[in-house]
Design brief:
With 196 residues, this protein is an alpha+beta fold. It has helices spanning 2-27, 51-62, 160-166, and strands at 31-36, 39-45, 69-75, 79-86, 112-115, 128-131, 152-158, 171-174, 177-182, 187-193.
Length: 196
């Protein structure tokens, strides 16, 4: 009987340790809160899926890069993009580009946050977008200019209703953009790492 009890206790200890490890793994996923003039959005980042991208994004957040910027490009039933321009549509200072990690990152499903870039696959800096629908065509398919895709590195865990609301604002021309710019500015008042 004591042997059986020892086995059961041993199994229980292993189970508790595994559960604690799972909990620690979940806790190690940083969250960022965007306070906007339309409401708050919280995203949870996935460092294991896109370590360079998450590190780069968190550095911009901690440096205050996104405070006072706007969602400058909004396309209904597609995505909302921000992080590059202040309220006067002046470009923000940026660091050098990072390597595209779309070949190992999340899929560009509804609610994911991903890095914006130019036609150069490895040109992402500070700008990001939130997918407001499943955008499979943005996923990695090949390591060439057309197939690299866009690195999705986290997902909205609170405030998707706000992201959707932003995605439906009237758009047109503003600043240097001839279309897709919100006609009433959508401002990121602050972006902070939750718990810091």
């Amino acid at each position: 009987m004591s042997f059986l009890r020892a086995v059961l206790v041993g199994c229980l200890v292993v189970f508790v340790m595994a559960a604690a490890t799972d909990g620690e793994a979940q806790e190690s996923k940083p969250q960022v809160m965007f306070k906007t003039n339309m409401g708050d959005i919280i995203v949870e980042l996935e460092p294991k899926a896109a370590p360079l991208t998450v590190e780069n994004f968190l550095r911009y957040v901690r440096d205050g890069q996104y405070n006072g910027t706007v969602f400058h490009r909004v396309i209904k039933d597609f995505m909302i993009q921000g992080g590059g321009f202040d309220r006067s549509y002046q470009k923000k200072e940026i660091r050098g580009p990072i390597r595209n990690e779309a070949d190992r990152a999340l899929s560009n499903n509804r609610g994911t946050i991903a890095m914006a870039r130019t036609n150069d696959p490895h040109s992402a800096t500070a700008q990001f977008f939130i997918n407001t629908k499943d955008n499979d065509f943005l996923n990695h398919t090949a390591k060439d200019e057309r197939g690299w895709g866009y690195t999705a590195f986290g997902r909205v865990v609170k405030g998707m209703i706000i992201a959707n609301r932003i995605g439906r604002v009237p758009t047109g021309s503003a600043g240097p953009f001839g279309q897709d710019a919100p006609q009433t500015p959508v401002i990121i008042e602050s972006a902070t790492v939750v718990g810091e």
